[in-house]
Specification:
With 441 residues, the chain is of the alpha+beta class. It has helices at 73-77, 98-113, 128-131, 136-144, 181-185, 189-212, 225-228, 242-250, 261-265, 282-293, 299-306, 337-344, 394-401, 415-421; strands at residues 2-8, 14-20, 31-36, 39-44, 62-66, 81-86, 91-93, 95-96, 164-166, 172-174, 216-222, 311-315, 330-334, 347-353, 363-368, 373-381, 402-409, 425-431. The protein is 28% helix and 23% strand.
Length: 441
């Protein structure tokens, strides 16, 4: 979730700003509440399309809420008045924009001194997107073909919404957002141990349920980019998160658990995570795939090592446009055709399903008579599996390794799907920053 508390209007009762959540099918479903000392004094939903937010969303994101009680500048600056947003999955508080803080301070001085200072009316400055609107499409097309230029930016530079920060060697890191990542690294040990126990109970239930069905079970938790590449981060963090550490410790002797932290952390080659993204590089995805599967069939490592990852393209990423409104670009590897041709001769994507909104419920099913392993594999996971179009997503490797492979984008196991598909192996995949919320199944 993203947004800002932009203004307390002169009537002392109207609050405005913007808010957006990708979790909402329609951003107008996002709930915005104004709280005075914890009590709700106004609520509403984003209802205005703002051109200055076109790099984030084309949906209505601007809001203006008339409150039931008077609000003073002092109450807002003191934190007695806050604007809360909720998308049905999480809640967050909007930060005050710098212009709002400036206006409130001037209002406070006027109240105390009887002055009539004002914020000078200035024409709004165009955003980077607006300034390049006429040529942006051509610029980005040229960039994808290699027309990029390296520049130096200071380590520690934050995105405007303070959800991301620039680390060393060009790596962007998530530090905020709806998952409140830094809070997860600072979680106290009793709370982390309790949360880890809930995950372990879930994994044990899955192992027992699949064991009764005669199916092999594999479970993994992919570590956060900040955990693996903390040496590139602009701040010090103790890694992994306490909750992740407890899970890894508790499951070290469980034969169904496959940790990838050591594989990704101990690997001395190219970084395992993309510079402008929270996801793995193609090489990182290969290492993670092998950590999850090489015990299933010894031929898989030979396949994975045979794939040559030397071709590259330039692209954006999921952290790339948080800083300037246009993507910070990075190179990503692609597999050479010659090294994968034999694994793709009979590869076929036989089923595609995309939900009307969001990602959960997405399904991809492949068959591949040219795959080295005859196993039938079902994975319940998330964006780290993806559509399987490129080798920086795990589905790309699974589809080329197994005779039959099905990916369900879901944090929970669907036992109706398991019973109807009848796989040899069921794999559960989640990521470190999702650990605060334990699925039902």
């Amino acid at each position: 979730m993203r947004g800002y508390f932009d203004r307390l209007h002169d009537d002392g009762r109207t609050v405005s700003g913007w808010a957006y959540s990708a979790n909402c099918a329609s951003n107008e479903d996002l709930l915005v509440r104004v709280l005075l000392r914890g009590a709700e004094i106004g609520c509403g939903n984003p209802s205005r399309v703002r051109g200055d937010l076109s790099h984030i969303t084309d949906q209505p994101a601007g809001f203006e809420i008339k409150c039931e009680e008077d609000i003073s500048a002092l109450d807002v600056l003191a934190g007695n008045v806050v604007v809360e947003i909720a998308d049905g999955l999480d809640t967050d508080l909007l930060k005050l924009s710098s212009s709002a803080v400036k206006r409130l301070r001037i209002s406070l001085v006027n109240d105390w001194t009887g002055s009539s200072l004002s914020v000078a009316d200035q024409a709004p400055q165009p955003s980077l997107v607006d300034a390049n609107k006429s040529s942006l499409e051509m610029i980005m097309d040229n960039a994808a073909n290699g027309a990029v230029s390296s520049i130096y930016l200071p380590v520690g530079l934050k995105s405007p919404d303070e959800s991301a920060v620039l680390g060393h060697d060009g790596h962007l890191f998530l530090v905020g957002g709806s998952n409140r990542l830094m809070d997860l690294y600072a979680e106290d040990h009793p709370s982390a141990a309790e949360g880890a126990s809930e995950w372990v109970e879930l994994f044990e239930h899955r192992a027992e349920s699949l064991g009764r069905r005669g199916m092999k079970y594999v479970q993994t938790v992919i570590p956060e980019k900040l955990t693996v590449l903390s040496h590139f981060a602009p701040m010090e963090v103790t890694v992994p998160t306490p909750r992740m550490a407890f899970i890894e410790e508790r499951l070290t002797k469980r034969n169904y658990y496959r940790e990838s932290l050591s594989a990704l952390s101990g690997w001395s080659g190219q970084a395992a995570y993309r510079k402008n993204d929270l996801h793995l590089t193609a090489v990182g995805a290969r290492e993670c795939f092998l950590a999850m599967t090489k015990h299933l069939d010894p031929r898989l490592e030979e396949l994975a090592r045979f794939v040559q990852l030397s071709e590259s393209k330039i692209s954006g990423g999921d952290l790339a446009d948080r800083f300037f409104g246009v993507p910070i670009l990075a190179r990503e590897a692609r597999a050479t055709r010659a090294s994968v041709a034999s694994f793709e001769e009979a590869l076929e994507l036989v089923e595609i399903f995309d939900p009307p909104s969001g990602h959960q419920g997405k399904r991809r099913v492949w068959t591949n008579a040219s795959a080295p392993s005859s196993l039938k594999v079902l994975v319940f996971g998330n964006s780290f599996l993806g559509d399987g179009l490129y080798p920086d997503r795990l589905s790309w490797w699974f589809a080329r390794a197994f005779k039959e492979f099905r990916f369900e984008w879901s944090p929970s196991f669907d036992y109706d799907v398991i019973d109807s598909y009848k796989p040899d192996v069921v794999i559960g995949q989640t990521i470190e920053r999702f650990l605060p919320k334990v699925p039902v199944l």
